[in-house]
Amino acid sequence: MKNQWRLVVGIILVLIVALFAILNVSEVPVNFGFTKVEWPLIMVILGSLFVGAIAAVLVSTGSSMQLKKQVKQQGKELTTFDQKVAERTESLKAEYENKLAEKEIALAENKKKIDSLEQELVTKLTTPPTEKTL
Questions:
Q1: What pLDDT digit, counting tens, does each position of 113-128 carry?
Q2: Please, which residues have CB within 8 angstroms of residue 45's CB and are 6 or more apart in sequence?
Q3: Helix (H) or strand (E) holding 42
Q4: Closest CA to 40 of 56, 60, 20, 58
Q5: CA dihedral sign of residues 10, 13, 17, 23
Q6: pTM of this structure
Q7: Burial of 24 (0-12, 13-18, 19+ CB in 10 A)
């Protein structure tokens, strides 16, 4: 649909330029500073239009090149930032894994202590009292 509208607008513009060219066929003097020529008015107008279009393309090309350069630079900065985030994430992950391993070791030691104390308590409760304990 968008391309159809562009085609319609393009055809309308071509018709307008053609009508304008038919209406402006009289010769006009054009002074270039070093020479003076007589050209049809439509040629002067179209030449001016062409020179203006070239100037606009050159200006927009310069701007787009700047924008592309800026996008590329920001992409590099983003990649660097992502690498720093990944490195920091990995270091924090390793740090917390070490802490978790230490806690698991401490937990296992405490479990062993609890098991040995339970075993000692069971042993004391299940052995018959001796004379010395009375």
A1: 999 999 999 888 888 7
A2: 20, 24
A3: helix 41-126
A4: 20
A5: positive
A6: 0.45
A7: middle
User: Which residue from 71, 72, 73, 75 is spatially nearest to 83, judged by alpha carbons?
Assistant: 75
Q: SS3 of 45, please? A: helix
* Residue type, position 90, single letter: E
Cβ neighbors of 20 (< 8 A, separation 6 or more) are: 42, 45
CA nearest neighbour of 38 among 46, 29, 47: 29
Element (H, E) at 58: helix 41-126
Q: How far is CA 98 from the centre of its chain?
A: 35
Cα–Cα distance between 134 and 115 in angstroms, integer?
Answer: 27
**The tokens of 21 are what?**
């060219």
Six-digit token string for 123: 């042993």
**DSSP of 65-121, one letter per residue?**
HHHHHHHHHHHHHHHHHHHHHHHHHHHHHHHHHHHHHHHHHHHHHHHHHHHHHHHHH
pLDDT digits (tens, 9 = 90+) for 98-113: 999 999 999 999 999 9
